[in-house]
Amino acid sequence: MSETSLSLDEIYALAHDAMTANGCNDANAGALADIVMRAERDGSHSHGLFRVPGYVKALRSGKVDGKATPTVTKKTPAIIHVDGHGCFAPLAQAAGLPVLAEATAEIGVAALSLTGIHHFAALWPETEFLADRGLVGIACTAYMPMVAPSGTREKLFGTNPISFAWPRPGKTPVCYDMATAAMAMGDVQIAARDGKTVPLGTGLDAEGNETTDPAKIAAGVLLPFGGYKGSAIALMVELLAAGLTGEQFSYEAKQTDNGDGGPPRGGEMVIGLSPALIAGDGWESHVEAFMDRMTAIDGVRIPGARRHQNRLDTGLRAINSTLVETIRGLI
Ligand code: PYC
Fold it and tell me: Which of these is catalytic: 42, 187, 213, 257?
């Protein structure tokens, strides 16, 4: 597999140019390119440049409005709603997250519902935004039906990622961002592209048989992680991201989507909690004592640590050359 070395600025520019060449204004292009660059910087390849051809398809088909301006409404002091009016998710998040953080810091708990957005990026930028401000963040979004509820072979749930971040003042936050599918579809597609196999239990082929062939799973169905337990969390994500926001469940997103391969219209729920107001004085030292105990265990890994380690390297990133050429061809 041939690779092209790009700086973080070049990654940003490539994504930005692909967006503006296909109808995005500078606000939408900048918010999206920033998320793409940060994904590549942190080693989350399935959410970086890999997504750009899909974003372009959604602009070209007219499904996404690259010139939309999100509107922010405070429904109550603790309930914030952002209507993206059909934009990519990052611009709507940029509009809503500061309002959510302020409300959470003031009241102790607040919720941000986003509707009319098109999301297929990582979710850790949302929760880390809160953790960087001393707040706990939880975010989740539904997608398109790709995952069979445990014990079945029928697609109903999306990959339904959920992210959680806990602030550690002076340190990088605890932060995980995981698909509730056994593997994110982007990673399955990348494994298929790179001729790799995936672990048994990732998904089923079109006939419902277990397989390690990612191409067969992409044509078949993904399984939830952890059997019925992961299935229950995927269900929770549908209810929070669609039931609670009033936006589309994954199966509804499929019914209204034009099948262009770009992200469908959907909703996202982001919840903020203030440990300073809820636990009160001493919360940092209490939690850090727990974290010290945890990290003293040989072999323990703190969620998000590898991403934060990757972030320290501001040098060149090796990107699949075919992907780079494909994106250049879209500009
Ligand atoms: O990574 O599968 C994913 C995803 C879906 C929506 C946002 N991210």
Answer: 187
